[in-house]
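Hey, quick one: can you model this chain's 3D structure?
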Amino acid sequence: MASVMTGCSDNTTGVNDNDDPIVIPIQTTDQSAVNMQTAGDYVILAGSEISNIPTSAITGSIGLSPSAGSEITGFSLEYTTGDQFATSAQITGNVYASDYGDPTPSNMTTAKDDLTTAYNDAAGRTSDDIVLLSGNLGGLTLTPGLYKSSGSLEISSGDLTFDAKGNADAVFIIQIASTLITSSDRKVILAGDAKASNIFWQVGTSATLGTTSVMKGTIMADQSIAVNTGASVEGRLLARIAAVTIEGNTVVVLAQ
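Sure thing. Here's the predicted structure for all 256 residues.
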């Protein structure tokens, strides 16, 4: 087990307060991808609300449960015969909610249960060479493996790079006890054949993505996810209990 102190929020070069380079240990324990099951069929999945300030561009389906479809706002929905799902000009995919026509209610319950299973899987992963993180990830490069924070993490002093070292199947899992926050314009960058579909953020409370920031990977938040104006996501926004809110965003689902 290794511990990495990532410095203060004004750190702009990926070094600590003594200006020494931060070295992220290379892990030898390979992690398998988190099995999203049917939760992986959705680019956005939430418990209490999905709120959009137009105009967003969503590639993939969205779903809400246990709240009713009236809590999906800002999409100008059109309902299909039988009300099993809805569509929107802002969504390349379908819209589902717990009170739509059968079999959608049971399908949504299953998807939310599968999200809980996936969340618990990510949260429960262990490894002999897990790397402990704290504070600000800006300016760092993470290699494949399992990372854990006992508090909050942020990406605010620089961009964060995931480097798969030439292994396109390499998996990155980041366990966060509290919040995940990215500042405006900050980016998650993929290198060395890293794939967004192999990055999993397990967030103990809520995630907030800053304006025009760029996020990669699947965010599984216990509570809520807020994506501010102009931010883009290559991945999934999955909130177990509360809301997903978006504002003029581009969100693209990933193939499992």
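One thing worth noting: The chain is about 10% helix and 40% strand.
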